Amino acid sequence: MNNLIISGYTSLYELSAAFNFAYTASAQFRDVIKSGFLQDSRLLSNNIKLRLKKINTELIIYNESEFLNDKKDIIIKKLNDLHNDLQNEEKKLNNEIEQAQSTLTNKFKPLYIVSALFSFFMLFLAGEEVYSNLFPKQELIFSLIGLSIVIFYIIVDTFWKPNKNLSIIYTSTISIIILLSSILLDLSFLKENNFIEIINNKMLVNVSIIFSIFPFIFAYTRLFTNALWISVKYRFIFYKINRKANNINKKLNEFKNAHNFFNDAEMTTNRRN
Amino acid sequence: MNNYKKAVEELAKNSENLEFDNKGNEHASVVLENMLKYAKKSFKIYTGNFNGDVANNDAFLKYFNKFIENKNEVKVIIESLPDDEVNYSKALKRIIDLNNNPAYNVKYKLATEAFKKELENIFQNKKPCHFSISDSKAYRVEIEPNTYKAIVNFNDPQITQKLELIFDNFFKN
């Protein structure tokens, strides 16, 4: 009875296989996940767009102004510089959001497929375990080691080649070969290894559970840190640009107050913010 | 001009507190039509004879008539009526026709010397400048009537309410 450990977790592996495949197959499912993480960055991008629009409006209005006299060219130049800086930062922010989305959407797909295949394999091992009343230790160790290498390769690839997608067929085929090998090959040589004896069965099952949900953990962590970094970085940039814009407005207001058209002191004091 | 129209509309739509100047009857029309387009309650104007280029401008007339039809408050103070009634602008004819009509909220009055005197005191150039105000927050003050040169702000309640107080006091008396 003690040997039926995997069988106790079959529902979990079923769910894991379903979610991993659903993630890979459904763009809608992926959209729901990624939109939550990048919402803050998108909100920031919208705020930058609004600010850009405002500066652009001011540029057009001041271009027609006679009131600013000799200050006009300086103001227009400063606003133009600000507009260009903000426009560049907005482009960079949108590229980073796009990059984060693309990594999550396409680069991690092979990871989810490998995990889904492993969950299926675990369901098969659960059946074997019930049938023979033996824990399939060698098969599990062999498949975990083999798939660890595949997963490691996929993760490295997401960092090294962010713009090139790894083929799902390629990684899936290797994973299937590893999983089939763990069943078909004679793995008795593993029994002679002392290290294998140290690892207990429950620990192996725990590792296999982590394996089956690993893509979600990894992708969420990566996207969360990415989204946080993007948000903090561009909030700081936006803050600096806003300060520049406020300084220009302050100088403009000082100029307007000095050339005030209205007579009444009451009408002019502190009315410009 | 197209960009200017869009920029002014942006300021009016968002009620931006940005003081700016403009010149020429086309620019004046753009500002006035946007004041009317985005005002929700009232439009008050002190003008020469309400018979110039702006009062005959199609875009201005469109929003002016729409504002009246929506039963919003329209009050006009005219410095002097044109000599020949045949030459009245469409806008002027409309306000004269609808003046005190209970179905609408349109009133006009001719300016007095006392009103002009009071106005002179609030401007640096000591002239009774023509102006338009809407919703107690947007103003357009014409500092040079001949060139339509004006100072505009779509969200400056302090200045607007000061002008409105003088305007409304004159209407009450």
Description:
The complex is a heterodimer of chains A (273) and B (173). Chain A is mainly alpha-helical and 273 residues long. Chain A has one domain (6-253). In chain A, 81% of the residues lie in helices and 0% in strands. Chain A has helices spanning 10-25, 27-63, 72-107, 109-132, 137-160, 168-184, 194-198, 201-258, 265-268. In chain A, helix 2 packs antiparallel against helix 3. The longest helix of chain A is centred in the last third of the chain and has 58 residues, at 201-258. The radius of gyration of chain A is 30 Å and the shape is rod-shaped. The model of chain A has no long low-confidence stretch (mean pLDDT 82). Chain B is α/β, with parallel strands linked by helices and 173 residues long. Chain B has one domain (2-9, 23-172): Endonuclease Chain A (Endonuclease, Chain A, 2-Layer Sandwich). Chain B is built from six helices and seven strands, in the order αβαβαβαβαβββα. Chain B has helices at 2-13, 25-38, 58-69, 90-98, 113-120, 157-172, and strands at residues 20-22, 42-47, 73-78, 106-110, 130-134, 138-144, 149-153. In chain B, helix 3 (58-69) links the parallel strand 2 (42-47) and strand 3. In chain B, helix 1 (2-13) runs parallel beside helix 2 (25-38) and helix 2 packs parallel to helix 3. The longest helix of chain B is centred in the C-terminal third of the chain and has 16 residues, at 157-172. The A-B interface holds A 53-54, 56-58, 60-62, 64-67, 256, 260-264, 266-267, 271-273 and B 3-4, 6-8, 10-11, 16-23, 27, 121-125, 141, 143, 149, 151, 156, 158-159, 162.
Q: What is the element layout, followed by pairings?
A:
The complex is a heterodimer of chains A (273) and B (173).
Chain A: H1 10-25, H2 27-63, H3 72-107, H4 109-132, H5 137-160, H6 168-184, H7 194-198, H8 201-258, H9 265-268
Chain B: H1 2-13, E1 20-22, H2 25-38, E2 42-47, H3 58-69, E3 73-78, H4 90-98, E4 106-110, H5 113-120, E5 130-134, E6 138-144, E7 149-153, H6 157-172
Parallel strand pairs in B: 2-3, 3-4
Antiparallel strand pairs in B: 1-7, 2-5, 5-6, 6-7
Helix pairs in contact in B: 1-2, 2-3
